[in-house]
Structures are given as structure tokens and as C-alpha cells.
């Protein structure tokens, strides 16, 4: 029984002498059973001696059994790694079971699995037993018989390997047998599948004394090489090329260490092979760290092979890209991956550079094409395809004449010669598009010789935009030349860069004579300092006709493209200066008066001089001065003026001032409130009507246009004019003629028009409720009137002005104004502007019983001052304000006790506003019910 068991077993005495053993045990020691019997275990166990045995024995007696690993000394003096299990049997005897670890190191099933892995074969040589394992793939490849001994196999292999390869690997194999290590080599191998390149890996491991086993793998390197080819390659050459193989080879373990890396790996990474063996792969492989290593191993275990690109960094910090084909291997419990890596850094860089280049070409705004010497198209960029509408297939092999008309032969020859001498040719041409249309292009051609061939590279630049720009520039230049304003443009060195026709006419010079000249040569009266410092300056010139003119110029410094210019724009202002002068004096006077206002209860002064009361426009605000300045400028030029601004800002007042300052002041100013007139009456109001023109037209009536003949027509609230009347008005304005309603006679009038509105006409034009042509006709000289909240410094003077006006009207004596009330007024936003302030003062004067006037704000106004009420949109504020007034009048709209009176609006205006703002009875009735 004992002798038939396949498990090697020995029975020993306490002295460790072998008293019995089975044949399996004898085979393990490579001895005859008789030879072993009588020997001492302490001599057979390579790690034991008599003293240690004594200790073991005591331990064994205590525990009854134990297991340990050791090496057995075999008959040929080799050490065999084994697992020893000792069991105490009683009567001073010990039974020993032995497990041959070498035999268990390989798992045939795993080998099978690995061999399925395409072109990888595995082998293992158990040196102690002289047994060679080969995976089926390898056996099949080599056409070798499994039953052969290692030596026989080696002989057979020798015959199949190129002699020079054999000579090279033999010493390396020997070395591996002497000392544990590894190598890999490329071999030329002729086997069942013809001749092929094989990569041959070997690694050895052993115990303290010697190498016990060798193992490794072979991997097919590339496609089969036809035998006759190989024959023609000399062995030496093959050996050389294998030595020069550039692949990097790494073996890695699951813990990330690299037990083996080849010379190419060491060369690239700059670490010695010994250094590499001590390093973790993550030390030079980007991203190969921590969880990623584990995940990667998981993947390798399940997929067994991988082809991927890795980035590594060498000792110096240089980065490389490796294209790795990696295989998973398992030897018993040991796992490895083997990676064959090709350095593709340069390839990759070239690929990326190429991609960038292609991207740049394709995204270039220019159309690019390359021609071969015979004029056929070699390459075009994306832009070319897009712009011409061509498809690559349309173009392939086509001649350039498909897109460009070639010049005459002799010009072509000349161009060819110039290109050959390295010149770049430029010009303008027309590119024929696929649609049949033509595109104006600027062309640039140069030659390039590449790979022995000459190519012409053509860049085409679309000129359409440039041509359009040129036309625009020409038009703007013409517009500038005929502008009413004088325009002068100086470079930073104060030389004349541009001067427009208007100014040239005034000074009677020719443009070509003065462009580029120093300004002082042409305008000696302009001094340099004022150009640099002043925003506006006047120059006096003597006109062609000998007249003395004053030109008022606005100076602005313009920087464009890092170049600075001075732009001087202005008009002949002769005659206007005096008017401005008088305004200036008035303004100064007002300022002086303002300074005199007292802190405490403000004392009212005696009626002030005329300066305070320029056309009843009261202001001390420097900002408002600009508006007045504009009035002064435009008053007697007779142009149409459009005054915009919120309600109650004094637009009508400005209109009247324009009329009074104009040469028409002794004629009538006729006002039409477009909002107040019912729609069906406006036309007859404006243009008049003949008797019987419509029901109710009992007699002939002159229209306001007619009435304003020779004077000024003021169209207030022009934004409310119905659309059909807008066109009639436009005609009257443009042609100066119209017919009365129901009349046939065409009337001509000389009318200066001033219009006003609190609506945003531009927005109305956009929405289609105001005619664009009328808007442009009216907007010749726009004046934007300021809201009172933008000039609170005017509040005290206005309060004073209105107090005086109403006190006089109501026959009251008011000498002072409560200053804290005044302070509050200054903080209030006055959505109704001056009209609201005027009403407030009027009310205050009515209620005033002493010489000091209190001007309290109402609750809503107070809330706004304290910031408690939200700042209302203008229309909403108007709505609220009207509702408040209606609440105060208990719902009465018209008549002497109606809201119109409190609001300072005539009844019709109020009713139309209420309609517009959708104010219904319900909005104000509730409050007083
Ligand atoms: N600067 C000012 N000095 C004195 N009074 C002024 C001033 N501005 C406006 N007012 C007075 O304020 C009131 C409103 O002015 P005006 O009617 O001119 O305003 P508006 O802008 O035309 O108003 P709306 O848009 O409602 O027609 C008038 O009584 C006017 O005399």
C-alpha cells in the first residue's frame, strides 16, 4: 500500500534515519530505494543538520505534526524545492510526505489558455527533473515532440534557428542556468509555418544553490517571411538587425514592479536596468498609479491582451509615447504582463503637426491650392472648396484653368521663369465659381520643390469685402466733402491729413496744395496749444469773397490702430457769437443770483433784471447751459428742430425761445397740440378746410400752416400724430405746399417747423407707428431737453420764480421759503418735472397764510423721497399722478374743480391721456367711496 502511493513518503526514526520509503520518494531523490534506506533525513534535507533536527523533533513531539518548505539534496547534487509534511506516528517514528514544488509550479490549463492568445507561446524547463514543458502553440510552431527530453529538443531547435542567432543565445542561456536572470532576443526561426521572426524570452529562478527552472515565452514578431527571402539575408545582417531592434520590453507584476526591462527600455528611460528593476512602473509611466494599476490588472486578467498608447517620462523629464502590445501571463500563482512597446513619439508629433497644419490650412481665410508643374490641381484647402462650391471629386486631376483664366502664353512663360527664380508673384484676378459666378480675388503664387517635384502654391484672397469697403470709403469721402460742417483732420505732428470740400471752399484753396502741409501754414490763426487742450475753438478766416468769417471747431483726439489724429469739426458761426454772448451774460447773472440764495428761509428778491429771465427760461445749471447753447446755435438757421424730453421739462418754452431768438420773431408762433385735437379734426386744423368740406364745416377756415406763414409752426406732441396725417405733413414740409381740406387750390407757405415730443420716436419708427421719412425730416437738429432730476441745482431758482409768479397772481405777500421744504424738494425725483414743481408751488401759495411759504410734498412724493416707494416707470408714474389728482377732485375730470386744473392740463389733453393710460373710473372711484 505504502509503496503504491504516488505521494512520495518516508518513515524515519527519531535519530532521523530512513527506515522505509516508497518508489515515488526514491524518484524524487533520483536514487534507488536501497540507496536511500539507512540515510539520515538531516542529510537529505538541504537546510537541516543534526542539531536543528533535534529541535524539530521536540517541536514535533509537542504538536504532533507540522509543515515546512525546504530543498532536498538529490543524487546529482541538485537541490529540489519541496513542501515537507511531518506527522508523528508514535513509537518514536515520524512519517514524512513530500510535495514536489517544481512540478506544481506549472499549470497545464493555464498554458493552454495562454497559447490561445494568438501569437504567444510559453515554455518552462524544470532543471532538477530535466523536463521541458511547451505550450501547444509553441509545439505546433516548432513542430516538436513533447516526449523529447530537453536536450533533444534543444538540438532540434538549434537546427531551426539561424546559426548566428543560436550562437548569440547559447551563452545567454548558459548564463541563465548559472544565475537567476532574464533575457530576450529576436530569432529567425524556421518552423511549421515557414520562416518567421520570433521574440524569445527567458527567465530563470532558483534556490540558494542553483537555478532550478527556466521559463519564458516566444512571440511572433511580424508576419511570416518567405523562406527564399530569408535565405538571401545573411545571418550576420539578421543578427545585426535584431540587436538594433527598437522595441522596449517590460515585464510587470501586479504590485507594479518590473522584474524585467530590456536594454532598449533602459536606453530610452535613462535608468540602468538594475535601477528599473527596483522601480515601480508608475515612476515613469504617466497615470499608472494607485487604483488605475489595480483596474488595469483586472482588465488584463479578463481580456489577456491589450494594445494601447502610454506616455512615459525619462530620467531627465522628457516625455515619450509608447505604442504597447501587452500580454497577460500566469505561471502557477505568479502573474505577469509582458509589454512590447514601440516608441512612437516622433511619429505622433509628426502626426499632430500634420493635423495642426491641415487644420490651419483648412481654417485659413485664404483659399489655398497647390498645382503640379503641368497645372493640374494637387491640393486645395477646405476654404477653397467652400468658396468655389466645388467637391473634391470635381477637382481631382483637373487643370487650374477650370478656376482661373490663364494669361497669354508669353506672359505665362515669363511668370514661370520668375517663379522658378524664387520670386513670388501677386496680382488680381477673377475666380470662376462652380455656380458660374465670379469672385474678385487677390492672388499670390510661389514655387516649392518637394521630393524632386515642383509645385506652385497659390493663395487667393477674397476681395469682395475690400471692394465694398473701398466703395464705402469713396462714398463717405464724398459725403464728408459735401457736409454742411467744415472738417479738418490733423496728424499728431499737426500736418493736414484731410480737409473737406466745405472748408476748402471757405478758404478758397485747393486740396492738393495743402494736404501734408503743416497746419500753421494754412491756418496761422490756430495756435498749437489750443488744439491740444481745448475742446472747442474759434478761428477767423477771410473767405474767398473777402468776408470775415468765424468758424467754431470742436476738437477731438481720435486714436485708431495706435495712430492719433486731431479731428476738427465745426461751422461758420458768424453772427451767432453775439447771441451766445448775450446768453452767456444772462447765464452769469443767474449764477450770481444763485450764489446769493440764503441758507435759512430763503428770502425772495425784488424782481430781477432781464438776465434772470431769458425768454422765461430759468436755470443756473451748467449742464443746462449746453441746451441753451444749442438753442442759440439753431435759432436763426431756419432748420427744423426736434425737441425731445420728458413731460413738463419745458419743451414748449424752448420752442418759444427758438422762435423769439429767430428772425421770424416779429411773425406768429402757431402751436398745434397733436395729442389734444380729435383725430378727425387735426387735418383741417393743420391745413384748413373749404366750406362744406365735411359735415359741420360751415365756413372756410384757414389752417395753422397758413396762419404760421412767415413765422414758426410748433407741433407739440408730434408722436401722437396719426399715420395718415404724418404723410400729409411730410409733403407739406418737403414741398412747402398743401391744399385745404375739400379745396383744389395749392397753397404755398414759408413756415419754420419746431416739433416736440416726450415719446421715443426712433422706437416708434422701429415699431412702425411713426414714419421713418418724417422722423428723419424732423430730426435735422435734435435737442434733448433735460429732466429736472438731472439738474436739481435749478430747483431753488425755479421755486423762487414760481413763488413770485403765483404770489403776484394771487395778491399775496410771500417773502421767504421754508428751507427744509426746499431741501426735500431737491431730493425728490420730479417725474412730472418743472410742471409738477410749478403745480406744487401754486398749491402751496394758495394754502399759504404767512410770509414764509411751506411747500410740503404729498404722501406719495414723500415716500419716493424716503425711498419707500419704488421708482415708477414714467407712464406708470403719470397714471398714478392722474389717479391721485382724480382722487383729490373726487372723480371730477373737467371744469374749474376738475383734475385738469390741479394737473395743469387742459381738459382735452387730460381726457386723451386718461384714454391712453387706460385710466378707468374704477381706478379712482373706490378711493373716495
Ligand atoms: N426752465 C424753465 N424756467 C421756467 N419755467 C419753466 C422752465 N421749464 C419749464 N417751465 C415751465 O414748466 C411748465 C411746463 O413746461 P412746458 O409746457 O414747456 O413743458 P413740455 O416739456 O412742453 O411739457 P409737455 O411734454 O407736457 O408738453 C410751463 O409752465 C413752463 O413755463
How many helices? The count is 39
Bound molecules: adenosine-5'-triphosphate
CATH superfamily of the largest domain: P-loop containing nucleotide triphosphate hydrolases
Q: Compute the average pLDDT.
A: 80
Structural class by SSE content = alpha+beta
InterPro entries: AAA+_ATPase, AAA_lid_NorR, P-loop_NTPase, PAC, PAS, PAS-assoc_C, PAS-like_dom_sf, Sigma_54_int
Organism: Neolewinella aurantiaca
GO molecular function: ATP binding; DNA binding
Domain Sigma-54 factor interaction: 617-846
Describe the structure.
This protein has 929 residues and is of the alpha+beta class. The protein folds into 7 domains: 2-103, Beta-Lactamase, CATH 3.30.450; 106-243, Beta-Lactamase, CATH 3.30.450.20; 246-362, PAS domain (Beta-Lactamase), CATH 3.30.450; 364-462, 2-Layer Sandwich (Beta-Lactamase); 485-570, Beta-Lactamase; 622-784, P-loop containing nucleotide triphosphate hydrolases (Rossmann fold, 3-Layer(aba) Sandwich); 791-928, Helicase, Ruva Protein, domain 3. The chain contains 39 helices and 37 strands. Strands 2-1-5-4-3 form a 5-stranded antiparallel beta sheet. The protein has a 5-stranded antiparallel beta sheet with strand order 7-6-10-9-8, sandwiched between helices. Helix 24 (576-595) packs antiparallel against helix 25. The structure holds adenosine-5'-triphosphate. Adenosine-5'-triphosphate is lined by residues 616-619, 645, 647-653, 716, 756, 758, 798, 801, 834-835, 838. InterPro entries: AAA+_ATPase (IPR003593), AAA_lid_NorR (IPR058031), P-loop_NTPase (IPR027417), PAC (IPR001610), PAS (IPR000014), PAS-assoc_C (IPR000700), PAS-like_dom_sf (IPR035965), Sigma_54_int (IPR002078). Residues 576-607 form a coiled coil. This is PAS domain S-box protein. Residues 1-39, 242-276, 472-516 form the PAS domain. One of its GO terms (molecular function) is DNA binding.
Amino acid at each position: 500500500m505504502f509503496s503504491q502511493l504516488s505521494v512520495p513518503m518516508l518513515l524515519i526514526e527519531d535519530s532521523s534515519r530512513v527506515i522505509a520509503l516508497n518508489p515515488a520518494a526514491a524518484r524524487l531523490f533520483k536514487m534507488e530505494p536501497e540507496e536511500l534506506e539507512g540515510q539520515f533525513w538531516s542529510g537529505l534535507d538541504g537546510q537541516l543538520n543534526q542539531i536543528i533536527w533535534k529541535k524539530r523533533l521536540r517541536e514535533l513531539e509537542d504538536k504532533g505534526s507540522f509543515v515546512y518548505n525546504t530543498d532536498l539534496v538529490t543524487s546529482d547534487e541538485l537541490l529540489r524545492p519541496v513542501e515537507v509534511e511531518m506527522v508523528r506516528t508514535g513509537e518514536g517514528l515520524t512519517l514524512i510526505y513530500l510535495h514536489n514544488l517544481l512540478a506544481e509550479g506549472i499549470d497545464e490549463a493555464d498554458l493552454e489558455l495562454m497559447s490561445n492568445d494568438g501569437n504567444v507561446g510559453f515554455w518552462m524547463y524544470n532543471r532538477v527533473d530535466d523536463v521541458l514543458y511547451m505550450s501547444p502553440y509553441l509545439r505546433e510552431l516548432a513542430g516538436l515532440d513533447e516526449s523529447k527530453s530537453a536536450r533533444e529538443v534543444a538540438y532540434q531547435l538549434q537546427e531551426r534557428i539561424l546559426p548566428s542567432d543560436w550562437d548569440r543565445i547559447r551563452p545567454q542561456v548558459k548564463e541563465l542556468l548559472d544565475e537567476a536572470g532574464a533575457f530576450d532576443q529576436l530569432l529567425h526561426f524556421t518552423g511549421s509555418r515557414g520562416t518567421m521572426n520570433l521574440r524569445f524570452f527567458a527567465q530563470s529562478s532558483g534556490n540558494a544553490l542553483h537555478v532550478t527552472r527556466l521559463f519564458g515565452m516566444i512571440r511572433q514578431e511580424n508576419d511570416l517571411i518567405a523562406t527564399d527571402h530569408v535565405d538571401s539575408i545573411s545571418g550576420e545582417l539578421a543578427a545585426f538587425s535584431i540587436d538594433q531592434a527598437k522595441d522596449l520590453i517590460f515585464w510587470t507584476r501586479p504590485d507594479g514592479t518590473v522584474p524585467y526591462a530590456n536594454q532598449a527600455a533602459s536606453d530610452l528611460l535613462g535608468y540602468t536596468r538594475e535601477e528599473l528593476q527596483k522601480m515601480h512602473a508608475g515612476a515613469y509611466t504617466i497615470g499608472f498609479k494607485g487604483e488605475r494599476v489595480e483596474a488595469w490588472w483586472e482588465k488584463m486578467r479578463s481580456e489577456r491582451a491589450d494594445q494601447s498608447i502610454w506616455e512615459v517620462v525619462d530620467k531627465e523629464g522628457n516625455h515619450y509615447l509608447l505604442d504597447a502590445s501587452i500580454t497577460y501571463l500566469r505561471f502557477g500563482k505568479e502573474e505577469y504582463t509582458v509589454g512590447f512597446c514601440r516608441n512612437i513619439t516622433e511619429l505622433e508629433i509628426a502626426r499632430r503637426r500634420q493635423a495642426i497644419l491641415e487644420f490651419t490650412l483648412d481654417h485659413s481665410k485664404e483659399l489655398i491650392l497647390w498645382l503640379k508643374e503641368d497645372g493640374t490641381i494637387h491640393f486645395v484647402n477646405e476654404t477653397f472648396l467652400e468658396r468655389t462650391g466645388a467637391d473634391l471629386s470635381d477637382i481631382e486631376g483637373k487643370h487650374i484653368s477650370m478656376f482661373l483664366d490663364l494669361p497669354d502664353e508669353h506672359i505665362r512663360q515669363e511668370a514661370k521663369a520668375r517663379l522658378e527664380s524664387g520670386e513670388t508673384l501677386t496680382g488680381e484676378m477673377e475666380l470662376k465659381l462652380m455656380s458660374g459666378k465670379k469672385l474678385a480675388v487677390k492672388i499670390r503664387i510661389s514655387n516649392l520643390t518637394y521630393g524632386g517635384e515642383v509645385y506652385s502654391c497659390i493663395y487667393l484672397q477674397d476681395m469682395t469685402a475690400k471692394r465694398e469697403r473701398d466703395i464705402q470709403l469713396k462714398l463717405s469721402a464724398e459725403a464728408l466733402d459735401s457736409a454742411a460742417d467744415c472738417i479738418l483732420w490733423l496728424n499728431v505732428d499737426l500736418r493736414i491729413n484731410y480737409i473737406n470740400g466745405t472748408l476748402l471752399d471757405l478758404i478758397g484753396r485747393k486740396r492738393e496744395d495743402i494736404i501734408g502741409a503743416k497746419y500753421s501754414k494754412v491756418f496761422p490763426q490756430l495756435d498749437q496749444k489750443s488744439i491740444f487742450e481745448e475742446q472747442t475753438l474759434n478761428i477767423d478766416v477771410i473767405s474767398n469773397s473777402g468776408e470775415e468769417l468765424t468758424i467754431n471747431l470742436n476738437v477731438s483726439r481720435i486714436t485708431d490702430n495706435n495712430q492719433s489724429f486731431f479731428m476738427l469739426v465745426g461751422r461758420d458761426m458768424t453772427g451767432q457769437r453775439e447771441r451766445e454772448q448775450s446768453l452767456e451774460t444772462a447765464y452769469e447773472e443767474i449764477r450770481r443770483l444763485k450764489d446769493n440764495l440764503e441758507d435759512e428761509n430763503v428770502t425772495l428778491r425784488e424782481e430781477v433784471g432781464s438776465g434772470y429771465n431769458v425768454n422765461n427760461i430759468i436755470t443756473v445749471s451748467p449742464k443746462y447751459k449746453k441746451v441753451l447753447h444749442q438753442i442759440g446755435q439753431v435759432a436763426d438757421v431756419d432748420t427744423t428742430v426736434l425737441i425731445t424730453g420728458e413731460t413738463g421739462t419745458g419743451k414748449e418754452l424752448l420752442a418759444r425761445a427758438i422762435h423769439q431768438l429767430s428772425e421770424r420773431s416779429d411773425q406768429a408762433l402757431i402751436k398745434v397740440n397733436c395729442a389734444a385735437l380729435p383725430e378727425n379734426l387735426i387735418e383741417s386744423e393743420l391745413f384748413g378746410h373749404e366750406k362744406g368740406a365735411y359735415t359741420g364745416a360751415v365756413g372756410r377756415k384757414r389752417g395753422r400752416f397758413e396762419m404760421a406763414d412767415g413765422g414758426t409752426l410748433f407741433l407739440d406732441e408730434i408722436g401722437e400724430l396719426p399715420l395718415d396725417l404724418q404723410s400729409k405733413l411730410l409733403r407739406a414740409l418737403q414741398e412747402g405746399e398743401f391744399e385745404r381740406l375739400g379745396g383744389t387750390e395749392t397753397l404755398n407757405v414759408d413756415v419754420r417747423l419746431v416739433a416736440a415730443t416726450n415719446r421715443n420716436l426712433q422706437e416708434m419708427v422701429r415699431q412702425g407707428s411713426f414714419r421713418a421719412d418724417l422722423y428723419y425730416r424732423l430730426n435735422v437738429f435734435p435737442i434733448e431737453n433735460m429732466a429736472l432730476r438731472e439738474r436739481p441745482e435749478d430747483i431753488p431758482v425755479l421755486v423762487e420764480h414760481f413763488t413770485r409768479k403765483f404770489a403776484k397772481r394771487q395778491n399775496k405777500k410771500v417773502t421767504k421759503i421754508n428751507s427744509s421744504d426746499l431741501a426735500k424738494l431737491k431730493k425728490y425725483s420730479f417725474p412730472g418735472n418743472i410742471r409738477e414743481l410749478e403745480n406744487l408751488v401754486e398749491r402751496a401759495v394758495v394754502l399759504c397764510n404767512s410770509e414764509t411759504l411751506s411747500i410740503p410734498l404729498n404722501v406719495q412724493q414723500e415716500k419716493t423721497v424716503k425711498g419707500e416707494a419704488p421708482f415708477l416707470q414714467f407712464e406708470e408714474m403719470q397714471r398714478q399722478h392722474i389717479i391721485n389728482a382724480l382722487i383729490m377732485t373726487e372723480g371730477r375730470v373737467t371744469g374749474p374743480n376738475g383734475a385738469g386744473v390741479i394737473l395743469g392740463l387742459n381738459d382735452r389733453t387730460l381726457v386723451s391721456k386718461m384714454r391712453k393710460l387706460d385710466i378707468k373710473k374704477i381706478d379712482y372711484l373706490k378711493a373716495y367711496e
